[in-house]
Amino acid sequence: LQHYTHHFQPAQEANKPTLLLLHGTGGDENDLLNLGRMLSPGSALLSPRGNVLENGMPRFFRRFAEGVFDIDDLKQRTVELADFLQAASEEYAFDAHQVVAVGFSNGANIVASMLLLRPESLAGAYLSHAMFPFEPETQVDLQHRPIFVAAGRSDMLISTENTQRLINLLEQQGAEVQAYWNNTGHTIIHEEVREARTWVEKHF
Ligand code: MLT
User: Fold this and answer.
1) Ligand 1 contact, 54 CB (< 6 A)
2) Catalytic-labelled residue, pool 47, 105, 121, 128
3) 48 with 4: CB under 8 angstroms?
């Protein structure tokens, strides 16, 4: 089992989903804790640090260049992350069927991959500034796994076409996708958080 430096904060309220928080390139396990609190007060939070280093910057998988993924590495590390999540649910005694992933940028990209390779490990997902990962080899059943996709029309890293391809891919696998667009770049603004929070309250 792969080791991840991580934070776990136990639930303060019953019947709330556990949030799996996955930071962007150069971030760490502290980055999304406040976001997690805002999205779902009282939820347990599991926040690992990506164990790939790119010039000292933690990530969740390797890339050849900005926006060019090492797909083999992505797939292998996706399975490792799903295994870590499963093991953590046993160690910390949270319900493995009530986990909602929250990822930003590189973290969101590995969530997209997890939805395709290990869909059963997530009850839903919030992808903030994610990219199209890869075409799955077989059809995946994402019905009843709601997904919130947030994107910026001025994102220098991700074109609107790429985001639309990601949304189409998820919908083709049966997911109910709620897309939220704003005019900013590769960043999370308050309005996005408010929209995402409303989405969490509605579905979980
Ligand atoms: C990635 O490599 O996952 C994307 O380029 C986004 C990022 O820079 O983290």
Assistant:
1) no
2) 105
3) yes
If you measure from the C-alpha of residue 68 to the centroid of ligand 1, how many angstroms do you get, rounded to a whole number?
8
Residue 19: helix, strand or coil by DSSP? strand
Please give the C-alpha separations between residue 56 and each of 59, 60, 182, 183, in angstroms, as whole numbers.
9, 13, 31, 31
- Whether 109 is in the pocket of ligand 1, judged by its Cβ within 6 Å, is yes
Of all atoms in ligand 1, which is nearest to the CA of residue 110?
A: 3
186 is catalytic: yes
The token duo for 65 is: 């260049």
72 is catalytic: no
Classify the phi-psi angles of 20: left when phi > 0, otherwise alpha if psi is within -120 to 50, otherwise beta.
beta
Structural domains in the chain, CATH included, are 6-203 (3.40.50.1820)
Predicted interface score ipTM higher than 0.90: yes
**Cα 13 to Cα 146: distance, rounded to the nearest angstrom:** 22
The per-residue pLDDT for range 53-95, each reduced to its tens digit, is 999 999 999 999 999 999 999 999 999 999 999 999 999 999 9
155 is catalytic: yes
The pair of three-digit structure tokens given for residue 22, joined into one six-digit string: 């996955």
Alpha-carbon distance of 10 to 45, in angstroms, equals 7
